[in-house]
Amino acid sequence: RPEVHFKLHVYCFPVQVEKYLELFHLSQEKLKEVSARLKRDLIRGLGKHSHHRAAVKMLPTFVRATPDGTENGDYLALDLGGTNFRVLHVRVVEEQQRVLKMDSQICAIPQEIMLGTGEQLFDHIAACLSEFLDSQDLKGKTLPLGFTFSFPCEQKEIDKSILIRWTKGFNCSGVEGRDVVQLLKEAIHRRGDYDIGSVAMVNDTVGTMMSCGYRDQSCEIGMIIGTGTNACYMEEMKNVKRVEGEAGRMCINTEWGGFGDDGSLRDIQTEFDVVVDQTSINPGVHTIIRFQLLRYKDLLLPPFSNEQLFTQRTSEDTGLENGQNILTKLGVKCDPVDVRVVRLVCDTISSRSARLCAAALGTIANRIRVNRGLDHLKTTVGVDGTVYRKHPNFSEELQDTVRLLVPKCSITFLVSEDGSGKGAAMVTAVAQRLALHCLLTSVEETL
C-alpha cells in the first residue's frame, strides 16, 4: 500500500495526509479577512433597505435589556421545537441571584396533530399546560410565560411572532403567516380553566445569553455551537434601522449560520465542503470528516464500504483507544498509524471550525467595543451546544484564537444552564421589569 513507505514509527503520518490537510489551515491573517467580511454582512443585515438581501439576517428580538439582578418571581416557560415540547415552572430568586427550575414536564405531540390543524396543535399545547399547572397547584395564579418557538418566524414585537414556514416534520394548517402567541392565547381562552400573563417570544440563542446574564450582568453575547451555530448580542438601537427608536439597545439574533451563503467564503471552501453542501441531508454532524476519510480511504486504510462512513458517526472522544473502537465498529482493520491519521483528520477539521467561530465571535465583541467608544471591552459570552460542551479541545482552541484576533476585548465564557427554559423565563422577567419601569415613569410624568 502507498503508506507503507511512510510508516517509520507510530508518530509518523503519510506525507499525502499533511498535503491534503493544508487546505484546512487558516492563518491569522485569513481569519482577520473573514472577520472583516462578517463585519460588512452585520451592517448590511441591520440596514433598513439592505437587510432583505443580506446573508446574515440580523433579526431584531425586541429584547431591550439584559438582567440587572433585581428580577424575581415565578414564571412559566414553554419550549416547542420538535416532536416533544416542555413546560417549566421557573423561580427567579433575587436574594440568591439564582434562576431555579422548580419542575418541568415533557409532552409528546402525536403525528396526527403535527399534520393536523393549527387549532388542534395549540389546543393540545393548552391542555398539556393545564395539566402541568394542576400538578404544580398553580391554576389560581396568572404567571408570565416565556415561549421558545424554534421555527422560522418574523418577530414583530416581543409578544408577536409570525410563523414563516413549518419545519421539522410539522405541517399544521392555518398557522403560517399568523401570530403564534395569539393562537396560543386563543387556545387557552377556549379552555377557560386558567389564564397566563404576559408572553415573551424567545430565540434559543437569546435564552442562552439571558440564562447566563442573571449570574453575570456583563453577559451581552449568546452563542450556540452544536449541530448548527448562531449568536446574538446587544446592539445600539441607533444602528437597528429596521426598528423605530434611537435610544437604548436591543438584542439582535444574528443568524450567523447563513454567513457565506452568498458565496463570500468561497475562497476558503475546500472540495470537501462543496460535496457536503451539495449532498448532505444532515449538515453539521461530522459529515465533513466522513468525506475526508472517503478521499483518503485507499491511501490510509484497508478497504471498507462508502456506506459505512455515511451511516456511522465518529466519536466525540478523540482518544486513540476510542478511535480504535470506532474504526473496528466500521469494519476497518487498522494499525496504530491508521488510528492516528483518523485522529489527525478529526483534529484538523474541528480546529478549523473553532477558529472560524472565534473569528465570528471576535467580530461581534469588537463591534460592541467600537459602538461604545471603548479602548478595551470586558464582556461575557453565554454559550451552549454539544460541540462546545463535549468536544475535548474545541472551547480551548476557540478561546485562544479570540484572544489573538481581538486583544482589546477580554471575554469570559459562561456555559448556559437551560437557555430554552430558564433563559426564556429570564427574558419574560426582564420584559416585565422594563414595562413596570415605563409605567412608573409615565405616572411620575403625569403627576
UniProtKB/TrEMBL annotation:
Residue stretches making up the Hexokinase C-terminal domain: 220-287, 310-430
Hexokinase N-terminal domain location: 17-214
EC code(s) of this entry: 2.7.1.-
Signal peptide: none
A Pfam family it matches: Hexokinase_1
Gene3D superfamilies in alphabetical order: 3.30.420.40, 3.40.367.20
Xref: InterPro entries: ATPase_NBD (IPR043129), Hexokinase (IPR001312), Hexokinase_BS (IPR019807), Hexokinase_C (IPR022673), Hexokinase_N (IPR022672)
Pathway linked to the protein: Carbohydrate degradation; glycolysis; D-glyceraldehyde 3-phosphate and glycerone phosphate from D-glucose: step 1/4; Carbohydrate metabolism; hexose metabolism
EC top class, as a word: transferase
GO cellular component: cytosol; mitochondrion
GO biological process: glucose metabolic process; glycolytic process; intracellular glucose homeostasis
Source species, domain of life: Eukaryota
Record's catalysed reaction(s): D-glucose + ATP = D-glucose 6-phosphate + ADP + H(+); a D-hexose + ATP = a D-hexose 6-phosphate + ADP + H(+)
Keyword entries, A-Z: ATP-binding, Glycolysis, Kinase, Nucleotide-binding, Transferase
Alphabetized SUPFAM superfamilies for the sequence: Actin-like ATPase domain (SSF53067)
Any one Gene Ontology molecular-function term assigned to this protein's record: glucokinase activity
Family listed: Belongs to the hexokinase family.
Protein name: Phosphotransferase
Provenance organism: Seriola dumerili (Greater amberjack)
